[in-house]
Design a protein that fits this description.
Blueprint (H helix, E strand, L loop, with lengths): L4 E7 L5 H12 L5 E7 L8 H9 L13 H5 L3 E6 L8 H5 L3 E7 L7 H25 L2
Parallel strand pairs: 1-2, 1-3, 3-4
Helix pairs in contact: 1-5
Length: 141
């Protein structure tokens, strides 16, 4: 599709934060010219059942394999959103030089044993995704 905007959400392992951002953006996005995906700086282990269950409470489906970050994945993105506070921004210096927009959200990971912490992080990600979606709607009018 011509003039497509490709957005990549990144966190450390692609097990929680980037997955939540991807799933929520897909849920609210009405523009077929915006495509999203997620990846981890490192390819993490499979998702925990607790994480999947918490996401479902927000109407989000995050089931699927975890994805690792690669230069091939970054190459096809217009916007890279680092959803995590534990991914060094320097990793994306070359992306910036290639004209990619890099957003740093600096969201701390949740303590998976603390359900309040998990819900708090999900709500924070949802707010950030809503803001990004609103910004893109304004720019694409």
């Amino acid at each position: 599709m011509k003039n497509t905007i490709n957005i990549l959400f990144v966190c450390r392992y692609n097990r929680f934060r980037s997955r939540i951002a991807e799933a929520y953006f897909k849920k609210i996005n009405k523009n077929k010219k915006i495509k999203v995906r997620s990846a981890g700086l490192f390819r993490g282990m499979s998702l925990s059942p607790e994480t999947i269950k918490n996401a479902k409470k927000f109407g989000l489906d995050i089931v699927g394999k975890v994805n690792g970050l690669s230069s091939a994945v970054i190459k096809n993105q217009n916007i890279v959103v680092v959803v995590a506070d534990d991914v060094p921004s320097q990793v994306f210096d070359k992306s910036r030089k290639m004209g990619k927009k890099v957003l740093l959200w600096n969201i701390k990971d949740a303590n998976y044993k603390d359900q309040k912490s998990v819900k708090k992080v999900i709500k924070k990600i949802i707010k950030k995704v809503d803001d990004l979606n609103d910004e893109l709607k304004r720019k694409l009018k």
